[in-house]
Amino acid sequence: MTEHLTNGSATTVPDVAGRFGIYGGRFVPEALMAALEELDAAYRAAIIDPDFTAEFEYLQRTYTGRPNPVTDATNLRAHAGGARILLKREDLNHTGSHKINNVLGQALLTKRMGKTRVIAETGAGQHGVATATAAALLDLECVVYMGEEDTARQALNVARMQLLGATVVPVTAGSRTLKDAINEAMRDWVTNVDRTHYLLGTVAGPAPFPEMVRNFHSVIGREARAQTLELTGRLPDVVAACVGGGSNAIGIFHAFRDDAGVALYGFEAGGDGIESGRHAAKLSVGSPGVLHGARSYLLQDDEGQTIESHSISAGLDYPSVGPEHSWLRDSGKATYESVTDVEAMDAFSLLSRTEGIIPAIESAHAVAGAIRLGKRLGPEALILVNLSGRGDKDVATAAKWFNLVDTGAEGAV
Amino acid sequence: MSHLAETFAAAKADNRAALIAYLPAGFPSHIDCVPVIAAMVENGVDAVEIGLPYSDPLMDGPVIQAAVDASLRAGTRIGDVMANVAGVASTGAPTLVMSYWNPIERYGVQRFASELAAAGGCGVITPDLTPEEAGPWIEATDEHGIDRVFLVAPSSSSARIDLVAQTCSGFVYAASTMGVTGARTSVSSMAPKLVARVRESTSLPVCVGLGVSTGAQAADVAQYADGVIVGSAFVKALLDAPTPSAGAQAVAALAAELATGVRGKSSANVL
After folding, report:
1. Using CA atoms, how far apart are residues A116 and A102, in angstroms rounded to an integer?
2. Contact of A26 with A16, CB cutoff 8 Å
3. Is B42 annotated as catalytic?
4. Which tens digits make up the pLDDT trace of B25-41?
5. Shortest CB distance from A303 goes to which of B107, B133, B152?
6. Which residue in the list B46, B60, B115, B226 is annotated as catalytic?
7. pTM listed for this prediction
8. Could you state, in order of their start, the residue ranges of all structural domains in chain B?
9. CB B169 within 8 A of CB B148
10. Cβ of A195: how many Cβ atoms within 10 Å?
11. Residues 6+ positions from B10 with CB-CB distance below 8 Å
């Protein structure tokens, strides 16, 4: 019954030290080690406690709205080499993305540990909104750190978090994006750790976060695998997802980890193009390094200084990635390619016009990748895409990109 | 006896704690870094930590972040850090590097330890490296005779204090409080208890850092610790100074005040 929250397979990682091969681990100030050990123990006790899993599953069903459907994107086929494309509709979850899956799990754990305050980082605002939502539901104090650049490009989500009762702290250090928001959240955590849980929003960070966050998101792939079998009578040839920190991708990949015939594809942000140097394609051109508590692929210079990432998508604008993706990459169990801003926005527009679904710009990277793979594989191919979030938050960015904003006297969009 | 051990032994023979000061490499500028630290040493600093500027200093508060950012913007590289180490070591004070882990791993642990030893450095403090992840680093530091200093915190369990203390050489760095670097109005009441717990695990010197900025605070910490570590207060004095020479005067005066403190006197008694 609780198999899906534990590893449940002899082939899975991490090991007891939280390592995925050479990746992962715990590279943190000693002051946080006690909190990580407490979290690890609380997590492992919770996932074998029927009361915890029952409450988690109850909230997923009655609050998040799970299971969400798989949509057969029949109109998109003609644009994707004739390949059949299925969309896993995480965009239909409460709060508008997959992020709520992990947030509810960790918020329940926070209560279980007797802590009264959660902090979170956010890039696009999706994780911040989900955390603020769960904090409102479970009566937790909530502070969200967000890079100042992101508060500007995702202003609507800032307002949503504030409406939900959270405090949003704009971070002005460094590149003023997700990386710096995580630094600031870590500083808060080390200072207030006795009553605060750091509700990390992706499969990165020190152990046990990569494993725990993955397992809270594994419902995505479990549902999608069964829905694909039911709809088509077979497994997909490809499972595709966008990769920033990598939580939605791991969430859908995990259920297919032992399916030899299923290729796993992650699409990271190519920004202005790899050759421009302005991108977030760490798995394509980064190198192994340590950032935010774990070893993983990282955009860094020859002396280990982090190189700032760039993407039109705030949620993918991160210079590192969850350690399991680095392990999947090196072991050949998954393939990673990059998608530029232009390709992603073309897919954003295409999905909106052909299927009536406005995706998050993050998720549009996965759609663009699926279209590319469809053209490569042809009409017999069956491609499952994780549509990780909806695009309401991105309407202003998209309107600007497509020159839909009339700056003249009429002022109407 | 290592250079650090000699320094602690001399302070102990003097019935006082050692004064350890921190400044980032390349700060307040490439030209001024070594002379400023030399002035601090002349005014009573016993040992020096040179910070390796890093893009993501998540254990540091706003003061050190600002200094490190300025140093990185001025183009500080690891070669410059080694040059600063060599310059400071030539004053005779034991010289350590304080570095987050990724720059050392990326540079190469053997290469880093070897170049530091060649520059006359005697140790490295790694605030985000735990003993569990330190295997290759332990080998490299042993091979090159570099002391490796890890941190303990008020939240550390007895088992973890044992582990950290057994992995350390030179001294054990006790973080006085739960938090990041920066001056505080009082040194945490958690610090004496933490130092006492560390002493149950090791005979190594135990030094206290985080939040110490005045002579009176140094005097307080010196009552129970073997060393008093001061960073942000020196950095702030330099950031606030209108000119480089005013900055040098300010840190020299602060060093003198703290040196009086670690001798168990408050500066008020001296003045």
Report:
1. 18
2. no
3. no
4. 999 999 999 999 999 99
5. B107
6. B60
7. 0.95
8. 3-261
9. yes
10. 11
11. none
